[in-house]
Design brief:
Blueprint (H helix, E strand, L loop, with lengths): L4 E6 L3 H12 L4 E4 L6 H6 L1 H19 L14 H25 L3 E3 L3 E5 L2 E4 L2 E10 L3 E3 L13 H4 L8 E5 L3 H12 L3 E5 L11 H14 L2 E3 L3 E7 L4 E6 L5 E4 L1 E4 L3 E3 L32 E3 L10 H16 L13 E3 L5 E5 L2 H8 L3 E8 L13 E8 L5 E7 L3 H13 L4 H6 L16
Parallel strand pairs: 1-2, 1-6, 2-3, 6-16, 8-9, 8-14, 9-10
Antiparallel strand pairs: 4-5, 5-6, 7-15, 11-12, 12-13, 17-18, 18-21, 19-20, 20-21
The structure holds flavin-adenine dinucleotide (FAD) and nicotinamide-adenine-dinucleotide.
């Protein structure tokens, strides 16, 4: 049987784009369908605009300290509307550059929503196309909990479209998105309340990292409610009123409510039943280690598989898929050492096992090295700004199992350290390494 394409990719986020581009280098005839802008969540309403807002917020934090560094205080004004316009202009230019890259690679771009008619046939823009292999890379979308009045809350998607900064912002969910936005928006002068249902924010991270970030956010003036959920949200002329289910049963007033309680796979109305593709929990596409679904010719990568919902992971899965299927270079990803960072202030980053996970696996032989330090940058001014680092080590082999950090440049430091940890570096080898002084990263080389 002949097909219109060798590979049809649904979704042009980091996963779909990486797979399409890699497959095209192997001489494969590729088409990619995208219903919105090229680049997916990451470029258009995730990592990239988020990091630009982090940079904008850093100016506010640095301005506060500038007088300690000899700069005279002068009035400053932050124009959110102007700033967010220039962010979107930049995002458009990234989408445009993807368009050129895809065209140059000979990949056909179809700017429509795609859905399955059967395992080899896709319906798109009122026509049918066929493909030998199909890759599902449709990402996810924000999950809104079932709370009366939740329709008044916005998601991270709308945060990037805010026409002006709210005076009072309440965030439901103290995970990656909630913590990052609470930190950025507080720096711009918003009164931020963060509500988390667990005992501590940032579930999944090492407990020492969670508590350091939590204390730092509180110290900066973010109002935190943990062990707390929302009973209802009520609209009033002046504001939105949240009734919270905590010991105090307080009512919190907000101008804007951001809900950031997780991401669900985008697998509804995709016609997956027509192709008989099996779904798992919360509609995640079930795949094996080579990203193959239960259908021999259909694969899935990225957030829609709900493995690790990060851009770098989606991208790596896309490349591994193309190498395995089109270049006869079978590639399975190792998910044990995926580094990740929370771009709050202070920044937090992690690679490898948390102390709790390591103890679960290796028991009492696990050794942990923990230190809090005062980053030089803050030493002229805010005396209580603490960085913290932690190494989790297998006591028998001395192998480093995990590294965790809160503080300036944590993401970059952990990323580099991740290479050594993945290669099995021992605590002794770290101790023997000469660092760069004065930096925060050198703290990892002298832990005792
Ligand atoms: C606010 C925020 C901040 C984030 N920050 C970071 C960060 O700093 N670092 C990090 O690593 N990750 C971050 N992430 C996560 C990251 O954005 C995702 O993990 C990543 O984008 C997943 O890539 P993907 O290719 O699986 O899906 P997506 O990027 O979601 O792309 C899927 C694409 O498929 C398209 N699509 C869906 N259905 C169809 C259809 N039927 N037909 C055609 N097209 C379709 C969608 O329009 C979308 O463009 C962040 C996420 C958010 C929301
Ligand atoms: N820097 C980054 O890499 C980055 C940044 C943003 C998002 N992301 C990705 O996007 C995904 C989605 O982010 P997210 O922050 O929405 O999800 P998340 O899973 O990181 O956090 C959700 C939080 O909401 C809490 N929660 C759930 N229901 C609640 C309720 N009813 N009331 C109060 N709290 C509740 C959970 O306990 C959890 O702490 C993440 O899993 C991450 O993979 C990554």
């Amino acid at each position: 049987m002949t097909f219109d394409y060798d590979l049809f990719v649904i979704g042009a986020g980091p996963g779909g784009l990486a797979a399409a581009k890699k497959a095209a280098t192997y001489g494969v005839r590729v088409a990619i369908a995208e219903q919105e802008d090229l680049g997916g969540t990451c470029v258009n309403r995730g990592c990239v605009p988020k990091k630009l807002i982090v940079y904008a917020a850093d100016f506010a934090l640095q301005n506060k300290m500038a007088h300690s560094y000899g700069w005279s205080d002068c009035p400053t004004y932050f124009d959110w509307t102007l700033f967010i316009k220039s962010v979107h202009k930049h995002l458009d230019s990234i989408s445009e550059s993807y368009l050129q890259q895809l065209q140059k690679a000979g990949i056909e771009i179809i700017s429509e929503r795609a859905s399955f008619l059967d395992a080899h046939t896709i319906s798109i823009g009122g026509r049918k196309v066929t493909a030998d292999k199909i890759l599902i890379a449709v990402g996810g979308q924000p999950l809104k909990p079932n709370i009366p009045g939740i329709e008044y809350a916005i998601t991270s998607r709308e945060m990037f479209q805010l026409p002006y900064l709210p005076k009072r912002l309440t965030i439901i969910g103290g995970g990656y998105i909630g913590v990052e936005f609470s930190s950025m928006m507080h720096a711009f002068g918003c009164q931020v309340t963060l509500i988390e249902k667990e005992e501590m924010i940032l579930s999944g991270f090492d407990d020492d990292i969670r508590s350091t970030v939590q204390q730092a956010l509180s110290k900066r003036g973010i109002k935190l409610f943990t062990n707390t959920t929302i009973q209802k949200i009520k609209y009033s002329e002046e504001c939105l009123l949240l009734t919270i289910n905590s010991e105090s049963r307080e009512i919190v007033a907000a101008d804007t409510i951001l809900v950031a309680t997780g991401y669900n796979p985008n697998t509804k109305n995709l016609g997956l039943e027509n192709a008989r593709v099996e779904l798992g929990e919360n509609g995640a596409i079930k795949v094996d280690e080579e990203n193959r679904t239960n259908q021999e010719n259909i694969f899935a990568v990225g957030d829609c598989t709900s493995r690790i919902q990060l851009s770098s992971v989606a991208q790596a899965e896309g490349i591994a898929f193309a190498n395995t299927v089109f270049a006869n270079k079978p590639q399975k990803l190792n998910y044990d050492y995926v580094p990740s960072a929370v771009f709050s202030r202070p920044e937090a980053a992690s690679v490898g096992m948390t102390e709790a996970k390591a103890r679960e696996k290796f028991g009492e032989s696990v050794k942990c090295y923990y230190s809090q330090f005062q980053p030089l940058f803050y030493q002229l001014t805010e005396k209580d700004k603490q960085g913290s680092i932690k190494l989790v080590v297998n006591g028998d082999s001395e192998e480093v199992l995990g590294a965790h950090m809160v503080g300036e440049n944590a993401a970059d430091i952990i990323q580099s350290l991740g290479v050594a940890i993945r290669k099995g570096v021992t605590k002794q080898e770290l101790d023997e390494t000469i660092g760069i002084h004065p930096t925060a990263g050198e703290e990892f080389l002298s832990l005792n």
